[in-house]
Amino acid sequence: MHNKKYVTIRDIAKAAGVSINTVSRALNDKPDISEKTKKKILEVAEELGYVRDFAALYMRKKATNIIGVILEDSANMFFAEVLKGIETAARKYGYHIILMNTEREYEAEEQAIKLLLERRVDGLIIAPVQTREEDFKLLLDKDIPFVVLGRHISNFVVDEIHSDEISGAFLATEHLIKTGKKNLVMIDNFLYTSAAKMRLEGYKKALMDYNIKFDEKMVYFSSPQIESGYKVTKEILKNGIKFDGIFCYNDLIAIGAMKALKEEKIKIPEEVAVVGYDDIAFSNFVCPSLTTIRIKKYEMGFKAFKMLYQRLTKRRKKPKRVILDVELIKREST
Predict the structure, then answer these.
(1) Same domain, yes or no, for 185 and 116?
(2) Same domain, 120 and 179
(3) Which candidate in 145, 248, 261, 276 could, as Cys together with 292 as Cys, close a disulfide (CB 3.0–4.6 Å)?
């Protein structure tokens, strides 16, 4: 067994009885070396536990073929599906990813960006917290390629990809109205995120189009988690608000809301109809199954990487904004 912390190509050359140059050519899959020699060198490298030195590789190529991905919560099934799209695209184009979570904390986002840049990633895909935006200025000033995912940045012109949030919220609210519901509560995310702002705009637009007066007392705010959706719905019920429909910022909030309604013996959808947003896998398996707005999560991740790849390979210079279509998925909760 090899005692050194890191195995070098010099160690491989010595063990295989070949030159350092031959080892380098084998490890970099160069054509001018016999398959037999290449196979032998790769076997020796594996046996010794060789790990490629990306720092040295960066010094030579000025690229690592690694990108940083910063998400607010990769355990959230929405982001898990987006991440799958990013990973598939990265593999297709010969890249690897380093993933970091922010838990919706701006300071954690700043730290993640700093750490990934220290690791010399070639570029970044970020689902930003959006309480502040100084980190984008830093990236733009340093000319670091990055793509904003799931959010719209209004103060800077950057590469970004997100869903048609206004349209999605309009479809959700309109569907509740068309099922005969008139008193509609919205449980939104906090308004520092662009998605929350645009979904509130879509909700208001649908109410206006169907001559229902907007009442700010019918809009509540929640972090995008099941527990928070549950607590906020309990609060709405405690406040004695009269409502027959709930439109939730995401499916997790909606699942929490349905639990709270069930505990109060409120029938879904007869007494209160519920619509979520995202169409995560759980939505079809809760009881009743959840009506929701389907976002192209995998496609969003895949396209986000392709947008970044275009920047990395200088195939596109101007920033691009991509807006993906959404779809209403009708299920038992309405």
Answers:
(1) no
(2) no
(3) 276
Determine, yes or no, domain membership for 334.
no
Domain range for 37 is 9-52
> Distances from the Cα of 294 to the Cαs of 81, 94, 286, 323, 325, in angstroms?
12, 30, 16, 14, 9
Query: To the nearest whole number, what is the mean pLDDT of the chain?
Result: 92
- What would the pLDDT profile of 220-271 be if each residue is shown by its tens digit? 999 999 999 999 999 999 999 999 999 999 999 999 999 999 999 999 999 9
The DSSP bridge partners found for residue 273 are 245
Give me 4's structure tokens.
Answer: 């050194």
pLDDT tens digits, residue range 152-211?
998 889 999 999 999 999 999 999 999 999 999 999 999 999 999 999 999 999 999 999
Tell me, yes or no, whether 46 and 105 share the same domain.
no
Residues 185 and 118 in one domain: no
CATH number at residue 138: 3.40.50.2300
Helices (H), 119-164: 134-141
| pLDDT for position 261 | 98
CA separation (Å) from 115 to 56, 111, 157, 178? 18, 6, 24, 50
Beta strands in 33-89, from DSSP E residues, in sequence order: 66-71
Q: What is the pLDDT of residue 30?
A: 83
**Contact between residue 130 and residue 151 where contact means Cβ atoms under 8 Å apart:** yes
**pLDDT value at 150 more than 80:** yes
Task: Tell me which residue of 321, 13, 279, 54 sits closest to 162, measured CA to CA.
Answer: 321
Q: Is the CB of residue 201 less than 8 Å from the CB of residue 169?
A: yes
Q: Residue 56 above 80 pLDDT? A: no
**CA-CA distance, 169 to 248, in Å (whole number)?**
9
CATH number at residue 13: 1.10.260.40
CA 44 from chain centre, in angstroms, equals 40
Task: Look at residue 330 and tell me if it is in a domain.
Answer: no
- Counting the structural domains of the chain, the total is 3
* The pLDDT value given to residue 55: 55
